[in-house]
Amino acid sequence: MAKSKVLVVGATGFIGKRLVKATLAAGHRTFVLCRREIGLDIDKLQILLQFKKQGATLIYASFSDHRSLVDAVKQVDVVISAMSGVHFRSHNLLLQLQLVKAVQEAGNVKDDSFDEKMVVRKAIEEANIPHTYVVANCFAGYFAGNLSQMGSLLPPENRVYIYGSGDTKAIFMDEDDVATYTIMAIDDPRTLNKTLHLRPKENILSQNELVGEWEKLSGKTLEKISIPEDVFLTRLKDAVLAEQVGICHFYHIFYEGCLTNFEIREDGEEASALYPQVKYKRMYEYLKQYV
Length: 291
What we know:
By secondary structure, the chain is of the alpha/beta class.
């Protein structure tokens, strides 16, 4: 069976770059949306031109030009949206609604993977668009290398703040593995109109376990300071919106255990079970780069 033609939207972003690389590596004919709104952002342009050198096709379109989006979508079988939904950098989530409309009008897309936010999800399902939602959980670059410390991307030197008991389980994913699993799902009928959960067993760790892995690697014992739930929530007071969003994410993950406190239902699949051939990176290996 011929491999699908794939359009990556948000290709210059943190995950988007990896998705393009994985799509090309898997042998898909790869298209990358180049937005006219790029303006004078030379860094993004250089990334896009590098994709072109690697074999991707650039498609020029604009979110302010519906027809250009429709024309772009008509050239492919699959659309992957990796547009940012975070508040502390760029927040483009609602732009995806325009992409949903373009996919619906084009009518030729057999699958698409979007950021799983409810407003976008509702629009996709109401439009009867074939889809796969990918739940990537905690990107290691933001949650593992810093031992889940807020406000830093590097491991702490002397002390580490522990959320509550530190025993709540979370799921940490190497970003390249997120891309690999996403691309493997493209032509897999088992993921059609389902949610693909990335939950490899050896990357389901508590914060205490993550800190323990770092201490073994670094040979240093860190001072642990526990933050009770009520004290953590006081951070919301006087915080700006971007900070509030981050605080709420950390609260749901490390106090409530929102990533692991449920079983995957019939409308979902677990990636490492579907694709056992993927040699996903364990967090012990991931942390070695910080030593």
